[in-house]
Amino acid sequence: MMGFFDRNRDELAAKGFDESRLPPGQYLTDRFPVLHVGDVPTYKPGEWSLTIDGLVDEPFTLSLDELRALPATEIKTDIHCVTKWSKFDMVWAGVRVRDLFERAKISNNATHVMGHAEYGYTANVPLADLMRDDSLVVYQYEGEDIEPIHGGPVRLLVPQLYFWKSPKWLRRLELCDADAPGFWEQNGYHMYGDPFLEQRFSED
Ligand SMILES: Nc1nc2c(c(=O)[nH]1)N[C@H]1C(S)=C(S)[C@@H](COP(=O)(O)O)O[C@H]1N2
Ligand SMILES: [Mo]
């Protein structure tokens, strides 16, 4: 008997999608689920800021207006959540992480980055992944300000990794010279989290 996942995968072709876009163990959804631990922060105007620090020569902090004034990039990308939903062709806009790191003059010995969000949520990502064209600090989804429940005003977007690596309500990117587990990684999730290799849990 064919289960939900098989049927969902079979429907991809009918919808005109290449089946290879859906990583193993995932299903495609049109919904945009909301997933996080804890409360959704609310910011008064001017309250939110983003700091780039750690192993950098020139740490700095940006206000939302300053971030929005930087050259913007729009990408259309597929997103994969470790809870098995995938969503295709999501359109996001923001600033390339690489550009922020260039401005901060990151040290040669920096190898990893810890993304810090409001209320202490963290996610570790190798520096190389954040230097990619499609790694962004985003403030728009589908042409609108990102809703608070989806991480507004600003979240990290690392589309090639499971979505837990994209902290909502991002406040700080800390350059480090070693990998260290973030929030979910301390709770048994994979240190890297490649959806196409199904790196869900630490032993995968
Ligand atoms: N600050 C923060 N960011 C977070 C999380 C969280 O709990 N707190 N959850 C992560 C997880 S597990 C997922 S799947 C995505 C969900 O994003 P969404 O609610 O916009 O779909 O956010 C990620 N970023
Ligand atoms: Mo998740």
UniProtKB/TrEMBL annotation:
UniProt cross-references to InterPro entries, sorted A to Z: OxRdtase_Mopterin-bd_dom, OxRdtase_Mopterin-bd_sf
Regions that span the bilayer: none
Domain (Oxidoreductase molybdopterin-binding) ranges: 38-184
One Pfam family this sequence matches: Oxidored_molyb
Protein name per the record: Unannotated protein
